[in-house]
Design brief:
The complex is a heterodimer of chains A (164) and B (104).
Chain A (H helix, E strand, L loop, with lengths): L3 E10 L4 H13 L6 H22 L10 E9 L3 E8 L7 H4 L16 H8 L2 E7 L3 E9 L3 H16 L1
Antiparallel strand pairs in A: 1-2, 2-3, 3-5, 4-5
Helix pairs in contact in A: 1-2, 2-4
Chain B lengths: L3 E6 L2 E6 L5 H18 L3 E5 L8 H16 L3 E5 L3 H10 L7 E3 L1
Parallel strand pairs in B: 2-3, 3-4, 4-5
Antiparallel strand pairs in B: 1-2
Helix pairs in contact in B: 1-2
The chains are: A alpha+beta (164), B alpha/beta (104).
């Protein structure tokens, strides 16, 4: 049976310095499951993209001087599933399908390359995006971590291969 | 600047990035590289990523933006020192296929 073994909720102002804060907080929280370097790298990358979207796009219509919030909820399950929900109360996305198309961007002039959703999709196991114009966007990502035994056997088999 | 170290050698401008690259840091890196590029007018711009522990798609935007700047001053762009994770991100972006960019 799938049970939640730990849960973390964060609320941070949508300012760019918090991109690295979010990555670090999630890394620390996941340490309990002892993910591989690759798994942790994948999650850090996907989180960075989702958080950056909140900062760059979600609150672009905010009056000057006001800052919106980023809400992050991370759950760890006994099945080694990690679920990460990142939401905002920003402008929302009119056409989610179009926004998820690789290289689609509304951030021209700011060197945004329209890869955010593509990266989230490629570096996690499931991705869903829900958005309402004027209400905000929620991104839900899941990553299924390998069993630690698998990691050990992977290490052994790769070191054996290396010796040959 | 602490985000990147730069040096000119034999007509090439070497940029060694020494921080994590995200939307927050990319802006600072971009500004200092562009200033140095306009001042030094190199024939080649070499971006070394071996000191980069983390990069998201802001790094791809940074590379593409510098490619455009380099071309505008007649310089070529070389990207080197990518870790396996960075290489995976570069591969997904498809920028390796650009003829004007060398990824080594």
């Amino acid at each position: 049976m799938k049970n939640i073994i730990n849960e973390m909720k964060l609320r941070l102002p949508a300012i760019s310095v918090n991109e690295s804060v979010c990555r670090s907080a999630i890394s620390a929280f996941l340490a309990e499951l002892d993910p591989t370097v690759e798994e942790l790298g994948d999650i850090r990358l996907a989180v960075s993209e989702a958080v950056t979207n909140c900062i760059v796009h979600a609150y672009r219509d905010m009056p000057r001087g006001e800052v919106g919030n980023i809400y992050i909820s991370v759950r760890l399950y006994n099945t080694r599933e990690v679920s990460i929900e990142i939401s905002d109360n920003g402008c929302g996305i009119e056409n989610v399908e179009e926004a998820m198309r690789p290289m689609f961007t509304t951030g021209e002039g700011n060197e945004r390359c329209g890869m955010g959703f593509l990266v989230m999709e490629n570096f996690t196991d499931t991705l869903s995006v829900k958005s309402k114009v004027g209400r905000g966007t929620t991104v839900l990502m899941r990553k299924f971590l390998k069993q630690p035994e698998e990691n050990v056997s992977d290490l052994i088999s790769s070191s054996v291969k290396g010796e040959k | 600047m602490k985000e990147a170290k730069m040096k000119m050698e034999g007509g090439s401008l070497f940029v060694y990035i020494t921080c994590e690259i995200d939307h927050h840091t990319a802006k600072k890196i971009r500004e200092s590289v562009d200033t140095e590029l306009a001042r030094a007018m190199p024939k080649e711009l070499i971006f070394d990523f071996s000191g980069v522990g983390f990069m998201d798609s802001s790094g791809i935007g940074l590379i593409l933006g510098r490619l455009e700047k380099a071309q505008s001053v007649g310089a070529t762009l070389v990207v080197r020192g990518l870790s396996p994770t960075l290489r995976k991100l570069v591969r997904i972006s498809g920028i390796e296929k650009l003829k004007s960019l060398s990824v080594i």
